[in-house]
Amino acid sequence: MKIINSLLFFLLLILVVSCDNKRVFDQYKSVGNSWHKDSIIKFKLPQLESTKKYNLFVNVRDNNDYPFSNLFLIISLEQPNKKVIVDTLEYEMANPDGTLMGEGFSDVKESKLFYKEKATFNLKGDYKIKIQQAVRQTGKVAGVNDLKGITEIGFRIESID
Predict the structure, then answer these.
(1) pLDDT digits (tens, 9 = 90+) for 89-98
(2) I want to staple 37 with a disulfide (CB 3.0 to 4.6 A). Which of 54, 73, 113, 143 is the partner?
């Protein structure tokens, strides 16, 4: 019986992975119990085809400890020629009633947030992504030191067919 269950699990796993044919890169990093404002999440991207276009996403896993309705991120894309493109982006994370948006059946939700659409990687060499939280309380200049409720930050690249 164990062999049959193991075989079924393995086949299901292959089915789930094979259905995600747009995925080129998908990686997560834990931020621990809270995400400090000076903590930078870094991803080194794989070599990508220069003739293709890609959609880029930031994936966020959060839970009910997240106290805000929005999330502000500073995202830097470092190109092989050392040119850095920096974007400060705002994402809506909660419904008007305060419940978290995103996918998931428990109190942990996963949000797939658009970063760049139809991006190209024309230069040969290493591309790097850096993500930092920039959440501030209303009326305050200083950022939130330790952002609670965010458990993991991911970065995903999908090919465009």
Answers:
(1) 999 998 888 8
(2) 143
